[in-house]
Design a protein that fits this description.
Helix content is about 40%, strand content about 20%. It has about 300 residues and is α/β, with parallel strands linked by helices. It folds into 2 domains: about 130 residues, 2-Layer Sandwich (Nucleotidyltransferase, domain 5); about 160 residues, Nucleotidyltransferase, domain 5, CATH 3.30.420.40. The longest helix has 25 residues.
Length: about 300
């Protein structure tokens, strides 16, 4: 790829970068963009709000760094590689939204859009912990929990574009915690940054974010540490189910919550191995991302270069 723009859209912020064909960051910025917290009443209003917000964020950066392609990792279910957003649990009202086409009309450049976790998987496979691996399962731990799959060297989206919605694997029975997707007991309701802060508030009465919960844990707060260990437990349970279906040897994890690795990883591995079939026990590598928070941007750059 030549120089392209890449965007990684999170639940609370938007990151932009100018990236070259070697994966080198030439310029970057971070902008607060709370896309999920809008009060729009109709699909048309919600679509306009998303387009306006993205255009306002991207256009100035594009003016400083003129290119012809941008790749975007966006939270939601996409129809294969069409750039059509089928829906998003955390972005109300958006259904069958031709995001790539309509944003391209606004920006005047080619736009490629894909699920944010799949972009992270592509970036990790090309530049990080999955480099040289035939297949990779990548898990993102942020506002929600995402998953992306590289199968036999290629990104796998499934027949409807919704493969590896990892955060919506059920880890607790139907009486578990409610999830934004409308179901109960999903991994995202137990292992996301949102879930960690919510659970800590319930048992401590302190309303704070997941980063502060981690700091409390490091300072010896047992309740905070137990919640993060529980996060590892539920992740291990979900990864075991995915591995039994896919027989994937390497799993990588990125996102803000993964910074609590020393608390999350031991219970994750214990639960993973206790739930695997015997021939697979001890053979699955679960590793921290080598790209930190840049996997999604590098993957977005990769899909832009293919447009």
């Amino acid at each position: 790829m030549n120089r392209v723009l890449a965007a990684d859209i999170g639940g609370t912020n938007l990151r932009l970068a100018l990236i070259d064909h070697n994966g080198l960051f030439l310029d970057e910025c971070r902008i607060e963009a709370r896309l999920s917290r809008h009060d729009k009443a109709t699909a048309e209003e919600a679509e306009a709000y998303i387009l306006d917000t993205l255009q306002e964020a991207i256009a100035p950066f594009l003016a400083q760094n003129p290119v012809v392609d941008i790749g975007i990792g966006f939270p939601g279910f996409f129809r294969g590689h069409s750039g059509v957003l089928a829906g998003s649990p955390n972005l109300p009202l958006l259904q069958e939204f031709a995001l790539a086409e309509r944003l391209s009309q606004r920006l005047g450049i080619r736009v490629s859009v894909q699920n944010d976790a799949l972009c992270a998987a592509i970036g990790e496979h090309r530049f990080g912990a999955g480099r040289g691996k035939n297949s990779l399962l990548h898990v993102t731990l942020g506002t929600g929990v995402g998953g992306g799959l590289i199968l036999a060297g290629a990104p796998y989206t499934g027949e409807h574009g919704m493969a590896m919605e990892f955060g919506h694997l059920r880890v607790v029975d139907k009486h578990g915690r409610s999830c934004g997707c409308g179901n109960h007991g999903c991994l995202e309701a137990y292992a996301s940054a949102t879930a960690v802060s919510r659970r800590f508030a319930e048992i401590s009465g302190i309303d704070t974010d997941a980063r502060q919960v981690y700091e409390y844990a490091c300072d010896g707060n047992k309740k905070a540490a137990d919640i993060l260990r529980d996060t590892g437990f539920y992740l291990g349970l979900a990864i075991a189910e995915a591995v039994k279906l896919l027989d994937i040897e390497t799993v990588s994890i990125s996102g803000g919550l993964s910074h609590a690795w020393h608390l999350i990883h031991p219970p994750l591995m214990a639960e993973l191995n206790s739930n695997l079939i015997p021939p697979l026990r001890g053979k699955i590598n679960v590793v921290h991302s080598l790209l930190d928070d840049n996997a999604g941007l590098l993957g977005a750059a990769a899909i832009a270069s293919r447009s």
